[in-house]
Amino acid sequence: MSRRLTVRRHAWPIRGSFTISRGSKTSADTLIVEITDGDAVGRGECVPYARYGETMESAEAQVRSVAAAVDDGADRSDLLDLLPACAARNAVDCALWDLAAKRSGLPAWQLARLAAPKPVETAYTISLDTVDAMGRAAAKASAMPLLKLKLTGEGDIERVAAVRENAPGARIVVDANEAWTEHHLDAFVPALSSLGVEMIEQPLPAGKDDALAGYDGPIILCADESCHDRSSLDDLAGKYGMVNIKLDKTGGLTEALALREQARERGFQVMVGCMLASSLAMAPALLLAQDAEVVDLDGPLWLAEDYQPPLRADGALLHPPERALWG
Question: Is the pLDDT of residue 16 over 90?
Fold first, then answer.
């Protein structure tokens, strides 16, 4: 075998800062995996996430732990047994998909037996801030058809109201990132419904969301931190109506496609989300996002620099990747 896996770190500078309930970022810190086989090079990118106990060091060590097996010809199905669902596995898995596409001359969507991808409309995130600042941000983004608001608890109704006032024509979804309590949920839902909010993402902490059992409110709830791979689905039934599938949580496109199929079979709506990363990380997720009810792949829109060639974006419309980028 002439294969060789390499991994490197890359920090993509963000325009301004990006804030959620757990903190702020000024750069998107990623790992880029490349697998070379002759003249073909497959690439994948991941974002190690502290919320799941991941660091750049631990994720890089996980990638290196499978390098010899990949060099010896391990494929995507082998990888499912070599690493758990994690960011590191995502980068390697997506690099293997890209390599297979480059070597075969067939696009990744054909290898995955999917329909040819079409452009998708992504949500645009309004970062957590003061009421006035989020209102100003909404005014600047008012042409975006779908806004996703990062929330935190007290003051959230005022934040959403300010966004609604400044972007009256936009659809709105909100993401609490586990920051709410049952009290917040009970108190907020009627007001958020009156403001036209269509979905609430992960209102309660993962592992403490049994209180959602039997929820039948007017706004659909979406599991993010509570949903990682297919093994998560049993615990989500009766609590959430939608699942957020992210490649860094599923450990790659291979598991993500299987999770999407099972989620659909079990009656869940699907959201396809992302960590803050470059177009290289978003490209495989575009295949996953083709029939999703909510698409949240705006990571590259926040960056001051991007992978080349980047995904082409016409406002909120993301186009399928050029093969030189991925797949």
Answer: no
Put simply, whether the predicted model's pTM sits higher than 0.85 gets the answer yes
- How far is 112 from 273, CA to CA, in rounded Å? 20
Tokens of 276: 């803050």
Q: Where is mean pLDDT largest: 19-23, 191-195, 214-218, 299-303?
A: 191-195
pLDDT at 248: 98
Q: Is 208 a catalytic residue?
A: no
Structural domains of the chain ordered from first start? 3-105 (3.30.390.10), 120-318 (3.20.20.120)
Contact 263, 245 (CB under 8 A): yes
Residue 99, CA atoms < 13 Å, CB-side half-sphere: 27
Query: What is d(CA 23, CA 6) in angstroms, rounded to the nearest whole number?
Result: 31
- Which entry of 102, 148, 246, 249 is annotated as an active-site residue? 246
Token pair belonging to 47: 């974002």
Q: What is the CA radius of gyration of the chain?
A: 19
DSSP secondary structure string for all residues of 29-93: EEEEEEEEETTEEEEEEE---GGGT--HHHHHHHHHHTHHHHHTT--HHHHHHHS-SSHHHHHHH
Mean pLDDT of 303-314: 94
Percent of the chain exceeding pLDDT 70 equals: 98
In the chain, what is the greatest distance between 2 CA atoms, to the nearest angstrom?
61
Active site residue 246: yes
Is the CA virtual torsion 289, 292, 296, 298 positive or negative?
Answer: positive
Q: Of residues 102, 148, 150, 249, which has the active-site annotation? A: 150
3 to 64, 65, 89, 275: CA distances (angstroms): 14, 15, 17, 29
Distance between CA atoms of 270 and 13, rounded to whole angstroms? 30
How many of the other CB atoms lie within 10 Å of CB of 201? Answer: 27
